[in-house]
Design a protein that fits this description.
2 copies of one chain form a homodimer. The first copy, chain A, is an alpha+beta fold. Chain A has 12 helices and 12 strands. In chain A, a hairpin with a 2-residue loop joins strand 6 and strand 7. The longest helix of chain A is centred in the N-terminal third of the chain and has 19 residues.
């Protein structure tokens, strides 16, 4: 598959242009473009520019309101309830990231729940921005149904990512970012395209039985990482991101890909902590000590290391995208 | 193995008496007794009365200060830093649970970090108390080293439990409580005692290689639930419970069992959220909807169900403990 290499700036401009031409306000388009290109640069292509044609189609059909203005519906001293207003998720998460640092500085901890939201991409992106400001960030998001409750056979929960970021003195933030399915559904799709079996333990068929047939898996559900324990975490994330925010559950949410139907209306929950308050100023030294102890063992790498390597290369050399995607985006933009 | 059945009240009194006779203040002893007997009643015997002889020995040797008075070292509007003062963990967690509800009611979210702490038992116990007050609770704790960083061979992290509880209208709180090792280390000990192999995937030997030999496993490390993804969560909990609070890391902490050496000095981090603020009052109905959708599938049970069944039976019939443990406790008390 032939690829085209373009600079990050050109990719952001192209992505912005594509959305603006599909019924999206310039500042919203820019917010989405920044996040998608950041994911692309980090090697997280599943949350990168490959999403853009579907995003543009959803803005064009009105399933996503490209002109939505996210608003703070309610607030307490350290809490925000944010309405993403059926727009893209990124402007609503930008609002949370803009408001939370002042609240966390005053209160020690603060949180924002977001409803009427959409795909929030690379979960770590949002908390990494908080960590760049010296805060610890945690985010939980739900997504359209893909995982069954443990013991069941029908998808109810999304793959429900958790991301965590912590500031490091003299180094980029530590970012932990994981979806709670054992493997990404995309891997099953690739196996189905190739006609290859998948390993047992990845997925269940529509009857809740383990399967190695990727087609049966696509009609069934994904197995959570950590099996029964992971299923409990999936439920916890569904409660924080959706029951707590008032957003749609995974089983109520429409697709993040199709341009048809109602908005998915999923939710996100973001927590920001000021480590200075809780640690008495010791946090930076303590985290450094932990990381040194980890890296003293041969074979150990920090979470997020590959992401930073990919990012450095993308900043120097730009990103490589499939020629077909590039052509499609040029056509759309 | 012959067992003795005693009432919960008699068990609490006995446990209190054992600790008071081993250099522990009455109110601290009572706090520990309540938690250990609650774990015993819930069928969580690994965090129940079996711990009491080791607790008493640690209080007697001074490794745990039974007369410690936990204090709030620092506070912000929604944040507490609590010094467990090398005492038992439970009085410090009681202090957090006493202070957090008012902060969460005012701020929407509040948190307490605890350092100089000890084994905090059944993690769900602490957040269940918050949920009984209408709050969502989250707690993270670290523990002495048992899990290696992913790719490594030496234990650095504890099994690092996460617990979550949410209030339910007309039903006991939903409690999710999991340690992050794939299986409890106690299961490996049982296999070693019986001379039976353990399944591959539970543990690594001292060289970081998978092993089915329980003795090699006990000299090695436990595998995290969810493998590499779980290892990232283990690190996240270590950062929240220890780096953030200023507590000892798992690899710095002494045993929770031996009466020798320095205090373990581990940490806990507790978050309390007011669902009313974030959900605009919709939380109870939304959680009910989610639980109904889960239970509509054959074969699905809620997390914590077995615990509630065991508790109801213990309340009616008392708890059954091994005769040898009962004799030991009577001797100590």
């Amino acid at each position: 598959m032939s690829e085209v290499r373009i600079s990050l700036e050109a990719a952001r401009d192209l992505a912005t242009r594509v959305l603006v031409r599909h019924r999206t306000a310039e500042h919203n388009a820019r917010s989405v473009a920044l996040a998608l290109v950041a994911a692309e640069a980090d090697g997280q292509k599943g949350h990168g520019l490959s999403r853009l044609p579907a995003y543009a189609a959803q803005a064009a059909s009105g399933k996503v309101d490209g002109f939505a203005v996210p608003t703070v519906m309610a607030r307490a001293l350290a809490a925000l309830r944010i309405d993403a207003a059926a727009g893209f998720a990124f402007p609503a998460l930008d609002l949370a990231r803009t408001e939370l640092p002042a609240l966390a500085a005053r209160s020690g901890i603060a949180a924002a729940g977001i409803l009427h939201s959409h795909h929030f991409g690379q979960a770590g992106y949002h908390v990494e921005r908080l960590a760049e400001l010296g805060l610890i960030g945690l985010v939980f998001g739900n997504s359209p149904k893909a995982i069954a409750p443990w013991g069941g056979s029908q998808g109810l929960f999304g793959t429900n990512p958790i991301a965590f970021a912590a500031p490091r003195r003299g180094a980029p933030p530590l970012v932990i970012d994981l979806s709670l399915s054992k493997v990404a559904r995309g891997k099953v799709m690739v196996a189905a395209d190739r006609g290859e079996p998948i390993p047992e333990g990845w997925a269940l068929d529509a009857h809740g039985q383990p399967t190695t047939d990727p087609k049966a898996a696509l009609e069934g559900t994904m197995v959570p990482m950590g099996d029964a324990k992971g299923a409990a975490l999936v439920m916890m994330v569904e409660i924080l991101a959706a029951a707590l925010t008032g957003a749609n559950f995974g089983f109520e949410a429409s697709s993040f890909f199709s341009a048809d139907g109602q908005p998915p209306g999923v939710g996100q929950f973001v927590i920001a902590l000021d480590p200075a308050v809780f640690s008495g100023g010791a946090f930076d030294d303590r985290l450094k000590r932990l990381i040194e102890a980890m890296l003293a063992q041969p074979g150990v790498r920090l979470p997020g290391g590959r992401r930073l390597t990919a990012r450095a290369r993308a900043e120097a050399e730009g990103i490589a995208i499939p020629e077909a995607l590039n052509d499609a985006l040029l056509g759309l933009g």
